[in-house]
Design goal:
GO terms for molecular function: electron transfer activity; heme binding; iron ion binding. This is Cytochrome c-551. Keywords: Electron transport, Heme, Iron, Metal-binding, Signal, Transport. The structure is a single chain. This protein is an all-alpha fold. The N and C termini lie far apart (37 Å). The chain has one domain: Orthogonal Bundle (Cytochrome Bc1 Complex, Chain D, domain 2). It is globular and about 30 Å long.
Length: 104
């Protein structure tokens, strides 16, 4: 009985964290310079975030790779336009990457 209650508690906690993480990622996206070049659904200067999520779906290590690209910048993944480094912490970059990859 104790194991069942613990499992239910853990499942409830995990399910309640996902929407909060998504909201935190979206709010963080709006508060950083990301929105100057990216939108969720439409290509602007950079790719639509849903396209980034689709390209990286199921890719091992995608969160860490994307977080590195967000923080340090990158070039050549989506054409010749470079993505500059962004003023984010490692934790913020990981939150943004997790949120982007959750988009459908």
């Amino acid at each position: 009985m104790k194991n069942i209650l613990f499992s239910l508690f853990a499942l409830t906690a995990a399910l309640s964290v996902q929407p909060a993480m998504a909201q935190d990622g979206q709010e963080l996206f709006k508060s950083k310079p990301c929105a100057a070049c990216h939108s969720i659904d439409t290509k602007l200067v950079g790719p639509a975030l849903k396209d980034v999520a689709a390209k990286n779906a199921g890719v091992a290590g995608a969160v860490d790779t994307l977080a590195s690209h967000i923080k340090n910048g990158t070039q050549g993944n989506w054409g010749p336009m470079p993505m500059p480094a962004n003023p984010v912490t490692d934790e913020e970059a990981k939150t943004l990457a997790t949120w982007v990859l959750s988009l459908k």
